[in-house]
Each structure stands twice: as C-alpha cells, then as structure tokens.
Amino acid sequence: MALSGLQIYKLLPGGLKPPHPKANCKECGYPTCLAFAMKLAAKQAELSACKYVTDEARRELESASAPPIRLITLSADGNKMEVGNETVLFRHEKTFYHPTGLFVRVRDTQPRAEIEAFVRQVETFSVDYVGIALRLNGFAVEAASGNANTFADCVATVATMSKLPLILMAKDASVLAAGAKRTTGRTSLLYAAEASNWQAMAAVAKEQKCPLVVRHDDDLGALAALAEQVKGAGIEDIVLDPGARGARASLHALTHIRRLALKKNFRPLGYPAIAFPGEGTSDPELESLLAGQQIAKYAGIVVLDHFRPATAYALLVLRQNLFTDPQKPIQVEPGIYPLNNPQPDSPVLVTTNFSITYFSVANELESAGYPAWLLVADAEGMSVLTAWAAGKFDADKIVKTVRGTGIADKVNRRVVIIPGHVAVLLGELEEELPDWRVLVGPREAVDIGAFLKTLPARLG
Ligand code: SF4
C-alpha cells in the first residue's frame, strides 16, 4: 500500500529519532527531508536521490512502492505480453492496464499434423475491430504424454511455427525442463509448482529465467504460503492458480485474490492469476462463457481448450472493451481515407476521429459502393455531436481539415459534405471555404447511401 508523505518522512534521515547528522542536507535537491518525502509520495522524486537512507528504510520504502500485483512479462520473437500491475477492482475507478492473455492449449499426444494445422489457424487468426487488430496471445503446450522427448519435440514444433509466447505445462520437473530447453530466446510461463514438487519446479524456472505458476487447490492460505516458499527460492515472477475451475468457485477465488492484493496489500497473493475454463466444463459454449467471466473477473491469463473463430471473436472484443481506458476514446488517425477507389470527381465527406463514428461512416460508404474521399478531423476522439458541443468540431476545425490535408489536390470538383448534426455550421463554412460547395449530409451514417444516390440531382 502506498505510504503517505509523513510515513515516508519517518523513514528518511530527518524523521529518525534522533535525526541523522545529514538531516535536511539538501543534497537530494529539496530544502528539507520533509519536502523530499512529499515529492516521493507524489511519485515526483526518486528515492535514490538521498544517499543517507538506511538499508532497512530503503527496503521498506521500495516494498511499499512496489505494485500491488506484480507485472509478469512473457516474450517470443519480439512479441511481448504483459499481465498484472493492475491497481483497481473496477474499471470505472481508473482503468485496467494489461489485457488478459488468451492462450489455447495443445497436448503433445495430439497427432503432429493436427497440432501444426491448429497452430497455423490460431497464429493467423485476427479480428479487425474499429481499426485495431485483435489476436490471441499464445499457446499452452501440455506434456500429456509425460514423456520428456515427446514433449520437447512438441514444444519445438509449436515454437518453430509460432512467434507467440508459450506456456509450458508438465507434472514432472525434468519433463518441463526438456521442453523449456527447446524455447531458447523466449520467456515462457512454466506450469506448475505444487506442494509436492515446488523445489524442483523452482529450480527449472530459475535456470530458464522464466516465470512460474504456483498452484494450490481450494485453499488461498495454502496458495499464499506456497507462493512465499517459491519466492524464497529466488523466483520473483509468479502466476497463481487457485485450482478453482467451475464458474462460482473461479469467480470466488479470483475475486478474493484481487481484493486481498489491492485492498489489503497482501503481498503473497500480489500476482496475476491463471484460469482454465475448459477444465470447468466439457461444453465448448460454456467454456467461452466461463472464459468471458474470467476475463472480466480477474484472470491475468486464460487458457482455452477449444478454439473457434466465432467464440474467439467474442472474447477478443469483450477483452478489448474491458481493457480500454474509459477516459480515452478509441481514435483513428486524422487525415484522408479513400474509399471504393475514389476519382477526382468523387465527393468529399467530413467526420470526426472517434473510431466508432469513423467506422460507421466508412462501413456505410463501403457497403453502399460509392467512391468517396472521407476526411477525418482531429476532434480528440469524440463523436460528431459531442465534439461540436465541446467546441472540438466547429467550422474552424473543418476548414483546417479541408485545407490542411491537401484534399483539394486530389479532386477536381470541390464538393464537401458535412454531417447533418452540424448543419448549423453551413453558413460559416460557405464563408470560409468560398472555393468549395458545402452540402449538409444526413444525420445518421445509415442514411449516407440514400443521400449519395440523390447527389447528382443536388449538384444539378
Ligand atoms: Fe534529507 Fe534530502 Fe539530505 Fe536525504 S538528501 S538527508 S532527504 S535533505
């Protein structure tokens, strides 16, 4: 839990009893230790600026400033995935930072051709959602055979075909090590240290420099104690598996872990959690529903046993919506967007750079089949009406967009269509764009096709 300025001050040279001889020496750049403490509390200064903090106080201050849920990073061939470091229970309190990692599981007992086809399908699966490419994060490879060579070969196959991060799963530490050795240059997640094998699993994780899952079923106290033991063995990067698999048990366990980490600053459970919805049900539809629940509350990583584009699409979009900052609208780049191969005599339409607005307009234009130039103004990611009300999409902004994008060089017929919601700007625009004919388009994107049909008649 973050310390207040006064709590920090008590640990600095000036706050000690008796004060350190260097108290208030100003070497940190602040006039007093108290002023420095206040800056530290506001995260506007670095503790390293004071050379006179005792080792004990430094440990306490560093531990207090550590994130309540540790950030865990997996990587492969330049693809990085981070989970953890969350600070709130509810998205509206601030934002969720690191989207739940979505993995799909393959088992080393599956035929090689089947694994290859599966990896290829998942690797190339991508959803275009308001201009953002959404993808799954990686593969979990399980040593279902229990054989080190079989597992290592399977890991090598997946690692060769995929540039996505991996989770390696084995019950036996020597089998896990055999697989991990085939993923040089990657940081994979190793699964799992349990009460019966944690020393051996921790040794593999240490040697491979990989994060390790700690699993203890149905007892968060025992899970916390085991995580402390693994940490004591030198493994800092830990992911928790509370073993809860059904919808109710999973919700209960994952919520408790998140609450204890954030509200009680309970360090032994201050790690992201992993969930396996396919172990809670054999029905692929229910697995997707359970995965959705776990994305929302509060899995850092979800490992799916089934991959189907339709349900993967829904999970990716759900995740995207949960892990966007509610205070920052999704935006597209301002500029000129040519749609349906526009020609110099094609009309020019103006809209704002709020993603949903842009895609509503662009989709309607594309499905109507009319070639057009879509001019996107920088309205700070607001929709047309909101931006107009906030003064971000006024006549000046539209004029700057028309002039600044150079659209005049691409057209020989200067006709610009503004959204119907800002019809009030018509007079001002006609004055400021005397070389353009300004038309008022429909209020709703869905009416654009019908509007463009009437354009020849409107233009005479
Ligand atoms: Fe105090 Fe700053 Fe001197 Fe440290 S460096 S003793 S915080 S004044």
Strand order of the largest sheet: 10-9-8-7-6-3-12-11
Number of helices: 17
What structural class should be given to the helix and strand makeup? Answer: alpha/beta
Q: List the ligand species.
A: iron/sulfur cluster
- Counted beta strands: 17
Identify the overall geometry.
flat
Characterization of the model:
By secondary structure, the chain is α/β, with parallel strands linked by helices. Helices cover 38% and strands 16% of the residues. It is built from 17 helices and 17 strands. It has helices at 5-9, 33-41, 55-65, 112-124, 148-161, 173-180, 198-208, 220-232, 247-263, 284-296, 309-322, 355-368, 384-389, 395-405, 426-432, 448-453, 455-459, and strands at 72-76, 79-83, 101-107, 127-129, 132-134, 138-142, 166-169, 189-193, 212-215, 238-241, 274-275, 301-304, 335-339, 348-352, 372-377, 415-418, 437-440. Strand 9 (212-215), helix 8 and strand 10 (238-241) form a beta-alpha-beta unit. Helix 6 (173-180) runs parallel beside helix 7 (198-208) and helix 14 crosses helix 15 (426-432). Iron/sulfur cluster binds next to helix 2.
Please provide a brief summary of the model.
The protein is an alpha/beta fold and 460 residues long. It has helices at residues 5-9, 33-41, 55-65, 112-124, 148-161, 173-180, 198-208, 220-232, 247-263, 284-296, 309-322, 355-368, 384-389, 395-405, 426-432, 448-453, 455-459; strands spanning 72-76, 79-83, 101-107, 127-129, 132-134, 138-142, 166-169, 189-193, 212-215, 238-241, 274-275, 301-304, 335-339, 348-352, 372-377, 415-418, 437-440.
